[in-house]
Amino acid sequence: MMRFKPSLLTLALIAAGASMHSYAADEVATDKTAKDENIEVIQVTGIRRSLQESQSLKMSSSSIVEAISAEDIGKLPDVSIAESLARLPGVSAQRLDGRANVISIRGMGPDFTTATLNGREQASVNDNRSVEFDQYPSELLNRVVVYKTPDASVMAQAIGGTVDMQTISPLAHGEQTIAVSLRGEMNDLGSLNSGSSDTGYRGSISYIDQFADDTIGVAIGYARMMSPNQEERWQAWGYPTNDNGDSVLGGAKPFVRSSELERDGVLAVFEYAPNTTYHSTLDIYYSKFTDDQRLRGIEIPGAWGTNGGVIPTTTDNGLVTEGVIKGAEVVIRNDVNKRDADSLSIGWNNKFNINDNWNVEADISMSRANRTDIGMESYSGTGRGTGVGAVDDLGFAYNGKGGYIFDHNLDYSDKNLIKLGDPLGWGSPLGANTQDGFINKPEIEDELKSFRLSAEYVLDGGAVRSVEFGVNRTNRDKTKLDKGYYLTLKGYDGSANYTMAVPDQYLLAPTSLDFFGMGNVLSYDSLAFYNDGNYTETDVADVDLSRATNSWAVQEKVTTGYVMANLESEVFGIPFTGNAGLQAVHTDQSSDGTVATVENEVVVLTPRTAGDSYVEWLPSVNLSFEVADSQVVRLAAARTLTRSRMDKMNANLNYTYSANPSGGNVNWSGSAGNPELRPWLARQYDLSYENYFSDQGYFSVAIFYKDLENYVYDQHTDFDFSTLFPQGPTDNPIGDVTQPQNGEGGYVQGVEASVSVDFGMFADVLSGFGTVISGSYNDSEVKETPTSNPTTLPGLSEKTLNATIYYENSGFEARISSRYRSDFLGEVTKISLQRENVNIKAETVVDAQIGYDFSESGIESLYGLSVQFQVNNLTNEPFTSYTSDDQRLVRDYQNYGRNFMLGANYKF
Q1: What is the pTM (predicted TM-score) of this model?
Q2: Residue 477 pLDDT more than 90?
Q3: Nearest 10 degrees: Cα torsion 412, 490, 442, 668
Q4: 616 exposed, middle or buried (CB, 10 Å; 0-12, 13-18, 19+)?
Q5: Reduced to 3 states, what is the DSSP secondary structure of residue 128?
């Protein structure tokens, strides 16, 4: 039998906080274990509780995992789940608008990770499958576990890893608890836009109780957030080369953004365990999220503009660092981005202990997510079209950070100079130069329904402890409706020089753009101007092929059968535990889309439905050997699957037809999605060593290798158009279509290490001090063809490093944390709210917090009260992306400022 046992304190922590929702086949210690061994449940809170429980979860799992646990009810270590996850070994986060919201695991980006809530896969509000973690209030979660290796009972596995967010079990909690928290928040950049705020708040309340002789448990929580977010952003169009071969600014769109993030989250858990043979849990989670952004700035054409040219005055190592844009014509932007999203997840789990040998489990769940976006652009300038209004000679100088500082002569806040219109002639929906604005209105609906039935047979002896088997059925339907409209002023009379002064009722105080030298700009409430019916809308899909094929629907029906043996024995005197199993995954996928072409300057649409079905076999094995007391070596191997991006699985196709192609070209050509796209597949191998030298101290090192069987690339393929249209007698039905295809694979490999140390174990004077440090190194090589150059994997940072130093003693606690990730390829938003991958510069983000728990003050009236002060982005680290190997050629430079939070928690 396995000698490896957690300590009494570890058992107490597991007993006090274990979730009743199991991710895989692991059986953790329960209240009965604690009682049988006469364990005194030690009251541990704060940072040490979080670290000790996370360590106990890592130690007792049959898979290679990392974990975060709440410091107390309603208190995960960070305000964002993604920020907490990014402190774990091998995990890194990407910031969006100043907040961490998506993650990479072991160098595999968000496309290769799966998120679950209590073991159930979640619908997502984006165009793909990856979950945006800021949809989930950290105050309502008890712990988050990252599974780096799967087993056969895991239905939501992924090549990168699986993130399981877990809610509390009220019966395992074992006592009545009410917890309330409230924090005020402020951003040190101030209110950058007129009408915006730099202050906000976060609050939550949780209630946990047990009834009917502890056979009924209830946990209810509510969390609300109103968070300000400010940003100064430099954004470049690009950097063409001039006649001297030097890179020069092609154009820029610097602006300031002010956001208000509003989120309401509700959680309810109902647990019923009338006896030892039946256990039922119903959990309901709902979140409503609104992100209201106001962006104001100037679009400045440079070398790519129709101005008098760029005159360089200083050049440094191939880059024009100073010069003058002669006769510059600019566009004043008053834009709005607004997102409304909501998520609902319901799960009902029932466990039946039939006898000493048989256990049966049934689980039914539903997850639904909806998103509606408004991305509005409103233009103003000195005239309609180029060469009409006043121009400016703009001096510029490189600021050393990737942006430029400008000198200007015109007053861009003058309402008599800056008027509504189409200053640069960007579009002609109702005649020349009539695109006075633009609005995108994409909508996403995603729904998953799952049913799982499984059984376990416990054997009476031998190396096989038990055998599990079962079946899971998941139906997923995701749709995207993408609408976009050109906006033209309703008063437009057809004259070439028509402009309109902004009506006084929409005018706001000017917005300062001093951070790049352009002074104040005209500001107005563009969304109110639009909502009052002042624009004529022209549907882009009527004239633009790409927009006509942006909407789609994808359906998946996945049936998974599995069998898994849970193992416990010895080999050469070394005890081991683990599991070995096999999944058979049958997938039936289809998509409803559109075939589009242009005939006589009109977009012609034809419906199309296509799909495919297939079976994949996924074996797995996880083994843990206790090579010495409290020292474990883990071995794991598996064939894993990650489903392709849903936005690439659409049945859309746009094409052109030529009856008499020249040069032997084909009659048909175009671009398409691929409803027959197969999943990414990999064979992965893991080896780790873990040494648990105290209840709050361990060292671990792990190496991994992922052999990617395939990868998805956009490729030219032969497409049979006779499946869509009748062919002429001389037509060749085989056309040339660019679409995503499963191509060659490659590998991802890496090493990661972590150490957690309580310095009190070395000397009493160091009691309360401790540190957690982790780092990882990743490497990859993926090729489209055996002879092509390697492809950079999105989300892969070669190096990551995390460090936390803390002190906790006599109620006082302080912590400073730093997370570093090297350069990586990340996904960002481009024009029309589409997504693209860009190079993102290495960054180090530092957070700090200090607090005091009055429960240890000896003041009885303050028992249960704690206060906390926290600073996020303490060193004001910017987010920077660039366009080439020269990091001076910055695409985006985003300055978010620091966020300060002061608040209190009360538990009774």
Answers
A1: 0.90
A2: yes
A3: -110
A4: middle
A5: coil
